[in-house]
């Protein structure tokens, strides 16, 4: 792929030629289509912002982390594990996005103000070049009382949802290097600097 910046995702000239051809072949009036294309706002291909939420529960038995198995209708990495994550929508902050993804994927409600940004993953060689903001929340064990729900999932995007012990984290296969991130966060929790 040719390297470029802010690539238009729709070429107006090509779109207009194609639509005019379709109109001509089918006997449609092309006047309104031509006008619409000329007035259209063209978007841009660029890297996508995403969020990942690392939610830890401090329990009597030790630290647990919220994770889910990627379901058979997940976009990629089906069957592997991850923390709740997804793309930032329009009209929301990244914290709001992280809280929304938690709720949509797991049914877990967390006040966005409790989420702390610890790292921005912006490498260009992994995860479709997404720019992922990684949020952390250390909760007490009362968070374990919330019931999981997948009712807001898109189809079977999410499989099993669990609070995992660190031993269980090590036993699972992970997407997006989330297992490495879990260990990094726990190894550095006493001196994490919130961004």
Task: Provide structural commentary.
Helices cover 28% and strands 27% of the residues. It has 195 residues and is of the alpha+beta class. Strands 3, 4, 5, 6, 7, 8 and 9 form a seven-stranded mixed β-sheet that branches. Strands 1-2 form a two-stranded antiparallel ribbon. A hairpin with a 2-residue loop joins strand 3 (49-59) and strand 4. Helix 1 (12-26) packs antiparallel against helix 2. It is elongated.
Write the layout of secondary structure elements.
Elements: E1 7-8, H1 12-26, H2 31-39, E2 44-45, E3 49-59, E4 62-70, E5 81-82, E6 85-87, H3 94-106, E7 116-121, E8 131-140, E9 158-165, H4 166-171, H5 178-188
Parallel strand pairs: 3-8
Antiparallel strand pairs: 1-2, 3-4, 3-6, 4-5, 4-9, 7-8
Helix pairs in contact: 1-2
Structural features:
alpha+beta; 195 residues; 9 strands; disordered N terminus
Give the low-confidence spans. Answer: 1-5
β-sheet strand percentage: 25-35%
What coarse outline follows from CA principal-axis ratios? Answer: elongated
Total count of helical runs of at least 4 residues: 5
Number of strands: 9
Radius of gyration: 21 Å
**Main β-sheet description:** 7 strands, mixed
- Percent helix among the residues? 25-40%
């Amino acid at each position: 792929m040719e390297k470029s910046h802010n690539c238009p995702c729709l070429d107006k000239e090509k779109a207009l030629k194609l639509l005019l051809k379709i109109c001509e072949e089918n006997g449609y009036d092309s006047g309104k289509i031509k006008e619409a294309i000329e007035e259209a706002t063209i978007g841009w291909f660029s890297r996508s912002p995403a969020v990942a939420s690392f939610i830890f529960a401090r329990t009597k038995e030790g630290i647990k982390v919220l994770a889910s198995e990627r379901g058979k209708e997940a976009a990629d990495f089906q069957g592997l594990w991850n923390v709740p994550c997804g793309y930032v929508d329009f009209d929301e902050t990244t914290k709001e996005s992280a809280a929304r993804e938690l709720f949509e994927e797991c049914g877990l409600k967390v006040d966005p103000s409790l989420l702390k940004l610890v790292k921005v993953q912006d490498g260009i060689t992994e995860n479709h070049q997404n720019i992922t903001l990684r949020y952390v929340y250390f909760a007490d064990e009362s968070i374990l009382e919330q019931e999981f729900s997948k009712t807001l999932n898109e189809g079977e995007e999410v499989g099993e949802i669990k609070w995992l012990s660190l031993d269980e984290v090590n036993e699972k296969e992970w997407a997006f290097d989330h297992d490495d991130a879990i260990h990094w966060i726990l190894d550095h929790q006493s001196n994490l600097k919130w961004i």
